[in-house]
């Protein structure tokens, strides 16, 4: 069985004054969480909590055109 990459999107993660977003391209949600936690690098506990919820999962082989927007925070 061929493994396919999926796009994992956590909206509302890493908020400051405004909601942020975490995105990972991975084979499964476990790998996606690990990639985000490793990339964030300041506090693994904080990063772990930010991506603890279920992300939106976009299968790239069947995805329709979509857009996301993230506002900057202070």
Q: Overview of this structure, please?
A:
Helices cover 26% and strands 26% of the residues. The mean pLDDT is 79. With 74 residues, it is an alpha+beta fold. A 3-stranded antiparallel sheet has the order 2-1-3, covered by helices on one side. 18% of the residues are buried.
Helix content, binned percent: 25-40%
Please describe the biggest sheet, giving its number of strands, its sense, and whether it closes into a barrel.
Answer: 3 strands, antiparallel
Tell me, briefly, the overall form.
Answer: flat
Order of helices and strands: EEHHE
Number of contiguous helices:
2
The neighbouring-strand order within the major sheet is 2-1-3
- CA-based gyration radius: 13 Å
């Amino acid at each position: 069985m061929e493994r396919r990459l999926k796009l994992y999107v956590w909206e509302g993660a890493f908020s400051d004054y405004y909601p942020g977003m975490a995105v990972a391209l991975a084979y499964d949600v476990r790998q996606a969480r690990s990639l985000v936690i490793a990339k964030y690098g300041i506090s693994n506990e904080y990063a772990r909590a930010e991506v603890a919820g279920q992300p939106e999962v976009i299968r790239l082989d069947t995805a329709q055109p979509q857009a996301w927007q993230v506002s900057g925070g202070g």
